[in-house]
Structures are given as structure tokens and as C-alpha cells.
Write a structure and sequence with these properties.
The protein is an alpha/beta fold. 55% of the residues lie in helices and 14% in strands. The protein has 2 domains: 14-64; 66-245, 3-Layer(aba) Sandwich (Rossmann fold). β1 (18-23) and β2 (26-31) form a beta hairpin. Residues 104-240 form the AAA+ ATPase domain.
């Protein structure tokens, strides 16, 4: 009896590892996980889930097309100031309300002078959603047009279709620096195709531009005088003017001060 009992109880945690079940009128001994083995099993499952989640996140980051320097833009790293506090709260709120904003196809059009934090804000939003395993693509207008062009020599139309489809399939598309691309009929056509496809699929976009709204409208107006691309954007995105002190100007002044201090030493 003592030998049987020692087999039924785990020597490590003192819980049962054998149970007696009544099956069709007969008693049968069934092996079960004791507490310590159950804990090991659950930890292994948790580790595997985390590993799969990390693998999926890395795949999403690769799929996002985001430049390496923007992958470290996060709200945790945000240098909050009185001037950019509203911008910070806007980005956080957009992420917190993502499910509702996505269902209502609400995007943002961040416009204003260069270096005011538009790209940083959009990258923070993109990285936050990626951490939640939400498919995001973040790329500049020049970058996506160059990618399409690069397929012509090797892949032909199939390569272009694949890129356009990836723009369609992402839950959120971040299009950076719109208006910096060459103003050709071809580029206007491709940009309209991407923007219009997301409009029809009711999938939101975040767009940044260094142009004023009127300048952007002029840039996106076709030779026929119709501003269809701009009109689509304004239907999908809430315009937000960003007027924070230019980070690039501040960085330039910081380097100037450093140079002066070096010369004075």
C-alpha cells in the first residue's frame, strides 16, 4: 500500500499524479499531471505563445516597410514639452480608440513645416499598433513609388500588383511626406490608385506632408483640373496642423552651440 501511495503522490509537490476513475463499473488508474508538472506545462505553453507572438511581430515589422530609424519611435521615448503635449495626446488617443476609428475609417492628415514631429508622431502610432500585432505599412510616397518602379524591370505588372495589394491589405497605411514626389502623371495615377483603393475598402490612412493644404491640393490636382486624390484624402482624414518648434532647427542650434563651446576651450 505504501509503495502504491508513493507512486500516486508526486515527491516534489505532494499532489496526485494518479487518479482512480470508475469506467463501466471497473476502477481504472489514470495518470494525471501533478501541480509542479502542470506549472511546467503551462509555462512552456506561455513561452511558445510568446515566441510565436514575437515571430509574428518581426514578420509584421518586415512587412511594414518602415525605415530602421523610425522603428524606435515610441510614445515612451517621446520628449514631451508644453508645445508638443497636444500632439502626444492625439497620438495616444488615436491608438486607444483604434478599433472604433478603424471601423469608422477615420485617418489623420498631419501637415505643417518640416521637422515639427509629424513623422515621429505617425511612427509612434504605427509602432504602438504593430506591438498589438495589427498590420501596418509605413512608407514615404517617394519610397512606395520607387518600389513600384523597381518591379518593372524584373517582375513587370505582377510585382506592381503585389505592392498595391499590400497597401490595400494593411489595417493602417502611413504615407509619409506626401507631396515630395515628382509631380508626374504616372505618380499621380499611382497615388490615386492606392488612396482610392483604401477609400473603397474603408481602411484608414495617416498621411504627413510639409505642404500647406492648398499646396497639397494643387500638387495632387490632375491635368484635367480635378482634385480627386485630395478630395479622397479629405473624406478619409482629419487635417491636423502641426506647428511645434522644428526639431531640426533645435538640433542645428544645439550643434552650433557645441561648436562654439569647442572653439572657446
Amino acid at each position: 500500500m505504501e509503495s502504491d501511495l508513493s507512486c500516486e503522490i508526486c515527491p516534489n509537490c505532494g499532489t496526485k499524479q494518479i487518479m482512480v476513475l470508475e469506467i463501466l463499473g471497473r476502477s481504472r488508474k489514470v495518470h494525471v499531471r501533478c501541480q509542479c508538472k502542470s506549472e511546467i506545462y503551462e509555462q512552456e505553453r506561455k513561452d511558445e505563445r510568446q515566441k510565436q507572438q514575437q515571430h509574428r511581430l518581426e514578420r509584421l515589422r518586415s512587412y511594414s516597410l518602415m525605415d530602421e530609424k523610425f522603428r524606435h519611435c515610441t510614445f515612451e521615448n517621446w520628449n514631451r514639452t508644453k508645445e508638443n503635449e497636444k500632439l502626444y495626446r492625439l497620438g495616444k488617443k488615436y491608438c486607444d480608440e483604434w478599433s472604433r476609428l478603424k471601423s469608422e475609417n477615420v485617418g489623420l492628415l498631419l501637415w505643417g513645416p518640416p521637422g515639427t514631429g509629424k513623422t515621429y508622431l505617425s511612427s509612434c502610432i504605427a509602432n504602438t499598433l504593430l506591438e498589438e500585432l495589427i498590420p501596418v505599412i509605413a512608407i514615404s510616397s517617394i519610397g512606395i513609388l520607387n518600389r513600384i518602379k523597381s518591379t518593372y524591370g524584373s517582375y513587370g505588372q505582377e510585382g506592381e500588383v503585389e505592392i498595391i495589394n499590400s497597401m490595400k491589405n494593411a489595417a493602417l497605411l502611413v504615407l509619409d511626406d506626401l507631396g515630395a514626389e515628382n509631380n508626374t502623371e504616372w505618380s499621380q495615377e499611382k497615388l490615386y490608385e492606392m488612396i482610392d483603393s483604401r477609400y473603397r475598402l474603408e481602411k484608414p490612412m495617416i498621411v504627413t506632408t510639409n505642404l500647406s493644404l492648398q499646396q497639397l491640393k494643387n500638387k495632387l490636382t490632375g491635368r484635367d483640373g480635378v482634385s480627386r486624390t485630395y478630395d479622397r484624402l479629405m473624406e478619409m482624414c482629419i487635417p491636423v496642423e502641426v506647428q511645434d518648434t522644428s526639431k531640426r532647427a533645435e538640433a542645428g542650434r544645439g550643434k552650433t552651440m557645441l561648436l562654439r563651446s569647442l572653439l572657446q576651450e
